[in-house]
Amino acid sequence: DEGHSERHHWYHRRDKKTVYRQLWIVRLNAALRDLGFKSYSTFIAQMKAKNIGLDRKVLATFAATEPEVFGRIVDQVKG
After folding, report:
1. Residue 40: its pLDDT value, please?
2. Cys staple from 63: which of 7, 45, 54, 70, with CB 3.0 to 4.6 Å?
C-alpha cells in the first residue's frame, strides 16, 4: 500500500513550478517598469505581437544577470 507521501509527491513539484513562475513575473515586472513599460502584461502582449518567443525564465535571467541584453530585448519589443 502506498504511503501518504507517495500518493501526493507530485503536488509539491507542481507548487514549486507555480512559485518559480510567480517569481519570474515579479522580477520581470520590476525590471520592465525601470525601463519604461507600464506592466509585465503589456510587454508580453507586445512580444507576442512581434513574434518574439522568449519565455519568462529566460527573460527573468537576462533581467537579473545580463541587464544590457535585457535592455536590447526591451528596445526591440518597443520599436
Report:
1. 94
2. 70
C-alpha to C-alpha distance for 50 and 44, rounded to whole angstroms: 10
Q: What grid cell was written down for 21? A: 513562475
Alpha-helix residue ranges (DSSP H) falling in the chain: 4-7, 9-34, 40-49, 56-65, 67-78
| pLDDT number for residue 20 | 96
Q: How far apart are CA 73 and CA 22, in angstroms?
A: 21
39: left (phi over 0), alpha (psi -120 to 50) or beta: beta
Rounded CA separation 21/9 (Å)? 20
Q: Tell me the three cell numbers of residue 18.
A: 507555480
pTM as predicted = 0.79
